[in-house]
């Protein structure tokens, strides 16, 4: 295999690529022969290199073995080695990968050896279990942590060299990596995370002096250490984790009432409170008491992120109710129109994480894939940029096949954010501030969602009650058209907000939208055709291994924006029939691409598995089923008649072709048996004859007609 070799100083070297003492990428003669180079040619070429007749076969000798210098070979031979030996990978990179793989194999062996050296003491397991403070899994994890500490302290030079390390320090560095890896994966447990070799060494020294107490002492608390046994701890944790949310005083009362009867010591409320509020304990009961969402918000560590550096580096997407009341004419139960108060509009936002600008949005009555597509289309059409990264939530609209395909086209990186975690996507913050800074200025503001706590964030019910009076005679509440205009103005006002305010409340600095519109190095606007190509998305069939759709008798059936549609490849521009395409492709599967810019696409593009375009398919026309409906569609009768003629022609063409093939076969001397060469079967037999035959069969089956002697004998023979 190709490899780097150090040319010996005493080696015979014929090369302009490298000299004795240097390292060079080499290929052996057998490897070149394996690649397809003739052995006889190689002998002549190497000889020519030595005599100066050739210059593309540099090499050196190590004993009797010849190594050809790869970089000095002709391009066609380098490509040959790359293709055959290195499997299409650049030779230098291939060698590096091989070396890395070999190193990893050795390292894995070393790692495995270290992990196997960790001994879990049976005495540690017994003592930890007797404490009744830990679940069985934690007992194992703490006992293994003790094993790592013992192993750390008994390392010496002899043991280190035995396992292939140059020194104790080098081995301890690898031990720390392994211990840290097990800690991350949850295989070991320390009172505090071991995050450096220094901390691990200090803990190992503590263990040497204190033993197991250095790993479990903290679990007993600092108050009433002797009294706080495993049973007391378990009871207090259970009471604190109840969903009814007992106060600490009530927990103390309930515990102390039963403690004497259970042989347990009494505890003061102060001691109970201090024990339960220890971080390691609180994190457990707090989740059970308040639920996962609150627990995550209050107890989980938060990551500190750098602000997004440039516009279009990250687009954050999300939808929410518009939070604006409006009036609309609706019909009551008796069919009479009247004004009704509505707040059912839904807004979907596209925001730029760098500037906080709302760069696109759409409005509908519910979140759908069409709504997401419209918002992204408006954004691209208005600004002409596409993002590097996009994030969104896991709603059905965002993860639909069409939307996911569009997002993949638009961005280099994209993924859904953690569910119910507003901190994971910046759009949540933008929407919240937008509602409170701009929508709240409107009299018909609904007041945000039910989770808001500040009285300044909710609407005044008296104001809303006043707006709802006399809808027939006042314009206090906007109509649907007016509320959409209000919302558009609010978005514009939000984008015009500056970076800060001066002492008089005026905005200063560049606005959000000015910062977004600035020219940034590397930022290029898309042209018209690039914008179009973004919205040409592949529809993937989840039931097919390659995501393809089968062309059937009804054409290709796909779901676009929740609507099932059928598409066919017509015979010509004015025809709605697909006899020609079906003749060649019925049963074939194709990749389907659709232009999402159209609300209801009239055509789709069919491509083969390699991505090559095969044909454009158009929505299949539905023809009338009865004569009465034909009267309302001019030319409908003619279409149906032509369709019937084409159907009949399919059979006639097949029959003619088969007869032609039979004639060719007979010319070869082949003679079919069981047929005279004419007719296809029951469909060629007159209907009256077929009916008579079927009736006779049924009569015999029902016993109405006696069987003939021949039939009886045949039946007996078959049954035997």
List the keywords:
720 residues, alpha+beta, seven-stranded antiparallel beta sheet, five-stranded antiparallel beta sheet, 27 helices, 14% strand, extended
Describe the model.
A hairpin with a 5-residue loop joins strand 20 (603-607) and strand 21 (613-619). 44% of the residues lie in helices and 14% in strands. The two termini are 71 Å apart. The protein folds into six domains: 3-100, no CATH class; 118-218, no CATH class; 221-299; 314-515, Ribonuclease H-like superfamily/Ribonuclease H (Nucleotidyltransferase, domain 5, 2-Layer Sandwich), CATH 3.30.420.10; 535-622, no CATH class; 687-719, no CATH class. Mean pLDDT is 81; it is low at 219-227. By secondary structure, the chain is of the alpha+beta class. Strands 15, 16, 17, 18, 19, 20 and 21 form a seven-stranded antiparallel beta sheet that branches. Strands 1-3-5-4-2 form a five-stranded antiparallel beta sheet. Strands 10-9-6-11-12 form a five-stranded mixed beta sheet. It is built from 27 helices and 21 strands.
């Amino acid at each position: 295999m190709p490899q780097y070799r150090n040319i010996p100083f005493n080696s015979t070297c014929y090369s302009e690529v490298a000299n004795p003492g240097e390292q060079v990428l080499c290929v052996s003669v057998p490897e070149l022969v394996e690649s397809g180079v003739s052995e006889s040619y190689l002998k002549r070429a190497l000889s020519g290199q030595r005599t100066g007749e050739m210059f593309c076969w540099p090499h050196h000798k190590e004993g009797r073995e010849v190594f050809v210098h790869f970089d000095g070979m002709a391009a066609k031979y380098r490509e040959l080695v790359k293709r055959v030996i290195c499997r299409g990978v650049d030779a230098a990179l291939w060698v590096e990968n091989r070396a890395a793989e070999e190193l990893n194999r050795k390292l894995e062996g070393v790692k495995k050896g270290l992990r196997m050296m960790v001994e879990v003491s049976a005495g540690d397991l017994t003592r930890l279990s007797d404490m009744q403070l830990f679940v069985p899994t934690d007992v194992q994890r703490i006992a293994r942590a003790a094993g790592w500490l013992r192993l750390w302290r008994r390392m010496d030079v002899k043991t280190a060299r035995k396992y292939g390390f140059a020194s104790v320090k080098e081995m301890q560095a690898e031990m720390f990596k392994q211990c840290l890896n097990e800690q991350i994966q949850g295989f070991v447990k320390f009172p505090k995370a071991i995050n450096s070799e220094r901390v691990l060494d200090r803990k190992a020294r503590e263990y040497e002096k204190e033993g197991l107490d250095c790993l479990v002492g903290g679990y007993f608390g600092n108050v009433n250490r002797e009294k706080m046994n495993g049973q007391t701890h378990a009871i207090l944790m259970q009471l604190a984790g109840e969903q009814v949310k007992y106060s600490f005083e009530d927990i103390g009362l309930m515990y102390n009432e039963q403690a004497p009867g259970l042989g347990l010591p009494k505890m003061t409320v102060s001691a109970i409170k201090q024990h339960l509020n220890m971080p390691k304990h609180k994190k457990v009961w707090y989740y059970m008491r308040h639920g996962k969402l609150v627990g995550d918000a209050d107890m989980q560590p938060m990551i500190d992120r750098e602000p997004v550096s440039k516009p279009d580096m990250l687009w954050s997407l999300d939808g929410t109710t518009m939070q604006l009341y409006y009036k609309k004419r609706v019909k009551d139960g008796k069919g009479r129109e009247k004004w009704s108060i509505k707040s059912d509009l839904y807004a979907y936002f596209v925001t730029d994480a760098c500037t906080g600008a709302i760069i696109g949005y759409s409005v509908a009555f519910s979140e759908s894939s069409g709504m997401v597509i419209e918002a992204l289309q408006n954004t691209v059409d208005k600004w002409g940029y596409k993002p590097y990264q996009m994030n969104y939530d896991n709603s059905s609209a965002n993860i639909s096949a069409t939307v996911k395909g569009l997002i993949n086209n638009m961005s280099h990186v994209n993924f859904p954010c953690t569910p119910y975690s507003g901190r994971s996507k910046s759009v949540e913050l933008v929407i919240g501030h937008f509602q409170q800074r701009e929508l709240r200025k409107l009299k018909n503001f609904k007041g945000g969602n039910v989770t808001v706590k500040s009285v300044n964030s909710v609407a005044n019910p008296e104001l809303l009650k006043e707006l709802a009076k006399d809808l027939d005679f006042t314009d206090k509440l906007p109509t649907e058209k007016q509320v959409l205009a209000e919302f558009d103005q609010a978005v514009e006002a939000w984008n015009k907000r500056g970076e800060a305010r001066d002492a008089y409340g005026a905005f200063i600095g560049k606005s959000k939208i000015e910062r977004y519109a600035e020219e940034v190095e590397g930022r290029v606007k898309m042209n018209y055709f690039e914008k179009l190509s973004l919205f040409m998305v592949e529809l993937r069939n989840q039931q097919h291994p390659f995501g393809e759709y089968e062309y059937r008798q009804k054409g290709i059936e796909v779901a676009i924006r929740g609507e099932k549609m059928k598409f066919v490849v017509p015979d010509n521009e004015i025809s709605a029939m697909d006899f020609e395409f079906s003749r060649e492709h019925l049963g074939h599967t194709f990749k389907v691409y659709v232009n999402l810019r159209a609300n209801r696409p009239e055509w789709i593009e069919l491509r083969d598995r390699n991505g090559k375009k095969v044909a454009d398919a158009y929505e299949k026309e539905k023809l009338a089923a009865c004569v009465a409906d034909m009267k309302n569609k001019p030319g409908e009768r003619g279409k149906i008649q032509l369709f019937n003629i084409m159907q009949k022609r399919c059979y006639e063409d097949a029959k003619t072709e088969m007869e032609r093939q039979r004639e060719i076969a007979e010319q070869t001397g082949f003679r079919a048996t069981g047929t005279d060469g004419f007719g296809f079967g029951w469909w060629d037999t007159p209907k009256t004859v077929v009916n008579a035959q079927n009736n006779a069969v049924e009569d015999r089956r029902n016993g109405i007609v006696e069987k003939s002697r021949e039939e009886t004998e045949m039946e007996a023979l078959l049954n035997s």
